TrEMBL record:
UniProt cross-references to PROSITE patterns, sorted A to Z: CYT_DCMP_DEAMINASES_2
UniProt-recorded name of the protein: CMP/dCMP-type deaminase domain-containing protein
SUPFAM superfamilies named in the record: Cytidine deaminase-like (SSF53927)
Record field: transmembrane: none
Domain CMP/dCMP-type deaminase: 5-134
Pfam family, one: dCMP_cyt_deam_1
Cited Gene3D superfamilies: Cytidine Deaminase, domain 2 (3.40.140.10)
One GO BP annotation of this record: purine nucleoside catabolic process
GO MF entries: guanosine deaminase activity
Record InterPro entries: CMP_dCMP_dom, Cytidine_deaminase-like
Species annotation: candidate division WWE3 bacterium CG_4_9_14_0_2_um_filter_35_11
Length: 159
């Protein structure tokens, strides 16, 4: 009998994408989009290489899914993000009608101070003010792993 993947299983795949992003010379963030239990798109954060400030892992996966499915409506899709989505990525998720975002590492004050995030905006508070709310789920199981990936990435920046 085939095991049905859980949110943790898909989130682990997003963490793996974060590692792939680093190997590709990008920021340590990864995302996957799932619809009807199947991965429909993946994304890594290589905006610097592409000269595209919007090419974050979440936005990239949304862009790929919409292009492949020839739609802008991902109502039944779930976005799995290794890091808590940046305000831009959260907004794109909202405009794409994504129903749920699952993430594995919360944004920290240190991350904001290092300009890894746009500021101290709270997407949960913003979500409550939106006309349509996205279900936001934080699963802390991969938080330490993601913080280590970020730390390793930072230590290699100066080499």
């Amino acid at each position: 009998m085939k095991k049905i993947p859980t949110d943790k299983d898909f989130l682990k795949k997003a963490v793996i994408k974060a590692k792939e992003s680093v190997k590709a010379g990008g920021f340590p963030a990864g995302a996957i989009l799932v619809q009807d239990g199947k991965i429909i798109a993946e994304g890594i954060s290589v905006g610097y290489q592409l000269h595209d400030p919007t090419s974050h892992s979440e936005t990239s996966s949304i862009r790929n899914a919409c292009k492949n499915l020839e739609t802008t409506d991902l109502t039944s899709a779930t976005l799995y993000a290794s890091l808590q989505p940046y305000l831009m990525c959260f907004s794109v998720s909202n405009w794409a009608n994504i129903s749920k975002i699952v993430y594995g590492c919360k944004k920290t004050d240190e991350m904001v101070k290092k300009n890894y995030y746009e500021g101290f905006n709270n997407v949960e508070e913003i979500n409550q003010k939106n006309l349509r709310q996205i279900e936001l789920v934080y699963i802390p199981d991969f938080e330490n792993e993601m913080l280590e990936i970020i730390k390793d990435w930072e230590s290699n920046l100066n080499k």
